[in-house]
Specification:
With 148 residues, the chain is of the alpha+beta class. The protein has a single domain, classed as Electron Transport, Fmn-binding Protein, Chain A (Pnp Oxidase, Chain A, Roll). 28% of the residues lie in helices and 26% in strands. The protein has helices at residues 13-24, 81-88, 111-124, 127-134; strands spanning 40-46, 53-59, 62-63, 66-70, 93-96, 101-108, 141-146. A 7-stranded antiparallel β-sheet has the order 2-1-5-6-7-4-3, sandwiched between helices.
Amino acid sequence: MPLEGEYEPSPAQWVREQVEEYERSGGTRANTLGDTGLPIVIVTTRGHRSGRIRKSPVMRVEHDGEYAIVASKGGAPEHPQWYDNLRADPKAVMIQDGPEPFEVEVRELEGDERELWWRRAVAAYPPYAEYQEKTDRVIPVLLATRRD
């Protein structure tokens, strides 16, 4: 069942515009990070404080139908706000990778499993390695698995 509720667009203009164009085009436009040519997906969550629907473009790190969601925030000292939404309700999450969003459940990775997915994430988006060097926090990697 899709997430329902009031959608609250991001306060960041570039995020609002990218999400809107991605959804309007069924994922055929605005599907890369700026002019990098590197693909993104849209992650939909429910705000853990507001209860409103939130949408964020994140780098596409897919393997065998599962997706890594990397909470890098460009190497900032704090996690992105959407990370708290994923942790608060790991079943109230959707991913859009193409024309139609689908439900996923997320869990934070640790140990060898995190390392494997971290390597995949860096291969998909090399700046992640620089982001980790910029911050003292361990950048969280969450695994999104499609729900039936």
